[in-house]
Amino acid sequence: MEQKVWDAFVLRYAPQALFQSWKWGEVEKKLGHKIWRLQWDNDAVAQVVKVSARRGTFLHVRHGPVVRDKRFFKKILSDLKELAKHETAWFVRISPQVQTLPELGLVPAPIHAMDAETCWVLDIEKSEDELLAGMRKTTRYEIRRAQKMGMTVHTGLKDFLDLYRETSKRHGFVPHTGIREEVEEFEKDAIVLNAAFEGRTIASAIILFWGEEAIYHHGASIPSKIPASYLLQWEAIREAKKRGKKLYNFWGIAPEDKPNHPWRGITVFKTGFGGREVRFLHAQDLPVSPWYIIPKTIEEIRKRYKGY
Fold first, then answer.
1. Lower Cβ count inside 10 Å, N or C end of the chain?
2. How far apart are CA 234 and CA 99, in angstroms?
3. Which domains does the chain carry?
């Protein structure tokens, strides 16, 4: 299947499935990962990545498989299981953007909610005045305060990467690999925005444009009372509108029933811009080997330890 046909199918049946886009597969290739682009006639596609981690080898279908009808999942999973056996993988992990699945021998993945399973989106076809009016009062105030302070927004990957390294050290998380490759592969469909005050970059964001939406995929900032992040998101929304996008996807947020979730603070920030929640089924695992118990146990421990 050619790139144009592949992406058209994905956008028709799972328009928010960024990780099933052709370009994302190319990013995985650049990172040295083995991938397959599988097709079941005109009924389904699945971009599969082989992950070799310390906790075990598995096949990962992020945001997929993408299917025309849920009845095809049985055949797809059977084929993925055979591929996993051939690749000596312990399990297959899928996260199709659906709300429910039929009984197929799957088990909920022990890992915390990832890949925007619960995300916050804003319809941006309204005018700028209407969007501002729909925001939380404090959010609107902070945007205007940043503008009055004379903050500037510029582009540039280097500033983002420098700030991202600082952010990861401060919060103690492992930085994502492949950010440079991601921006390079998406080219004109990616933009790096940096908000600065008096010559110093305070907040940065990477926005990807896929289908009819703009996706806030990565962010970085330093602690500051200057409302840089508010202005940054507003400028990203304005850029998305210029490009004719219909949705601005703030990406992952914390579940409502977990008030102590590590993402609670960023969730309050994102929801302040107005919008609505979109929720998909949690990632599901298809165990292939008895050794699946090892990654399952490790991920369950990590999840509890990190407070997810």
1. N
2. 30
3. 3-114+281-306 (3.40.630.30), 118-279 (3.40.630.30)
